[in-house]
Amino acid sequence: MTGQRGAAGPEEPTPAEARAAAVRSLQGQFPGVRVWYGNSTGSWWALVPLREGPRLIEATTPQEIRDTILRLRNLA
User: Fold this and answer.
1) What domain range is 66 assigned to?
2) 37 C-beta neighbours (distance < 10 Å), count
């Protein structure tokens, strides 16, 4: 049956569900930052508002995008 968990335990999230959870987590950590996964590019993206204006960043993993946001905010 669709949507039910097996007797052996919970099913693993689909890649799309895992990406959506990562986006929610990152946006929760960084209010005002817009984060998304580019299905066409296969990259993680964020639009980070900074004093000098918004900055668009790209990364290969959610951890890399998180680290880059932190670095940018510490420089501002």
Assistant:
1) 15-75
2) 18
